[in-house]
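User: I've been trying to design a sequence by hand for this structure and keep getting stuck. Would you show me what you'd pick, starting by listing the structure so we're on the same page?

Assistant: Good idea, let's start from the same input. This is the structure you sent:
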């Protein structure tokens, strides 16, 4: 009888255990996600946060820098422009070689008066009482803003003018002859884009000698 009961117990135990469903999971105790109740290897063990078979490629981190290849500090590895690009050049808007893109002055600016400097042949149709010199030398003093000097401008000596880009102005000048007579003149003109010719319209007033406008043409020597 006892033997019969033992056999029945064994059969029941085996039957009950055979009815338990298999549980998939990680069977490796060394894994981060080890499952002590798993009966089947789910091949899903995680080690140090890495899933086997998963994408282990790291997401590239953005690199800040200058992305403009024309800049002096261009960084070919940069993926985000951080506004640090440097463009050396002339930053003076009034200079002949002004570079609107430049944000770092490299000392290359050419004084706008430089194109006026030099020796010039001068032809004119001014009256005899206003003898214009030919040739003339135009120069400038870097300590005087915008100013140029015509030397000699006329029989009455040198005359100053002012420059704005390609335009030149000769302020009115009065020359007195001991109270007997006064001659005044002044005018303005423009240099051509080739920088080899200046035409100035000169207004004059010589009192009883007459008044009017004459044209001075400067050709670069």
């Amino acid at each position: 009888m006892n033997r019969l009961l033992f056999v029945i117990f064994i059969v029941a135990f085996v039957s009950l255990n055979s009815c338990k469903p298999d549980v998939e999971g990680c069977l490796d105790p060394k894994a981060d996600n080890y499952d002590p109740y798993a009966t089947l290897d789910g091949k899903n063990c995680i080690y140090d946060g890495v899933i086997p078979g998963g994408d282990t490629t790291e997401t590239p981190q953005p690199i800040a820098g200058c992305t403009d290849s024309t800049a002096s500090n261009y960084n070919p590895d940069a993926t985000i422009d951080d506004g640090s690009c440097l463009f050396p050049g002339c930053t003076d808007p009034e200079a002949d070689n002004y570079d609107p893109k430049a944000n770092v002055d490299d000392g290359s600016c050419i004084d706008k008066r430089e194109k006026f400097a030099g020796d010039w042949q001068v032809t004119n149709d001014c009256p005899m009482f206003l003898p214009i010199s030919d040739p003339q030398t135009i120069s400038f003093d870097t300590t005087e803003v915008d100013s140029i000097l015509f030397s000699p401008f006329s029989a009455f000596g040198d005359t100053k003018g002012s420059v704005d880009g390609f335009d030149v102005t000769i302020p009115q000048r009065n020359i007195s002859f001991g109270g007997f007579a006064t001659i005044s003149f002044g005018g303005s003109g423009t240099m051509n884009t080739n920088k080899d010719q200046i035409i100035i319209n000169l207004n004059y007033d010589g009192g009883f000698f007459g008044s009017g406008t004459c044209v001075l043409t400067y050709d670069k020597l």
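That's my pick for every position. To get oriented when you compare it with your attempt: The chain has three domains: 2-41, 58-110, 114-220. The first helix runs from residue 2 to 18.
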